[in-house]
Design a protein that fits this description.
The protein has 3 helices and 2 strands, in the order αββαα. By secondary structure, the protein is mostly helical. A hairpin with a 5-residue loop joins strand 1 and strand 2. The radius of gyration is 27 Å and the shape is flat.
């Protein structure tokens, strides 16, 4: 096993290696994971690049987009709500 370098250069190298390892961990943690569950409920991660990984990931992203569309509030189109909103903006009572 290689001994770590001593002195200021060795400490700086150790800090740089620690920062680089932390950056790699954060990048890895931010990547989307495909979790598959067996009938018994045991999860397993489908490795990136494995057969079907990209297709499952694409399908799940489309499903999430559909849910996001449904959760978005829809504007009310009736005239009474537009008058009420206009009245509130003008700061007065509607006639």
């Amino acid at each position: 096993m290689k001994e770590p370098a001593k002195g200021p250069l060795g400490r700086a190298t150790a800090v740089a290696e620690g920062v680089a390892a932390a950056v790699r961990r954060r990048q890895r943690d931010r990547e989307p994971h495909v979790m598959l569950y067996r009938r018994a409920g045991d999860p397993r991660v489908l490795a990136p690049g494995a057969k079907g990984h990209d297709e499952i990931l694409e399908l799940s992203e489309r499903m999430i987009a559909l849910v996001d569309e449904e959760d978005r509030p829809r504007p009310r189109g009736d005239a009474a709500s537009r008058r009420t909103a206009r009245s509130k903006r003008m700061g007065g009572e509607q006639a």
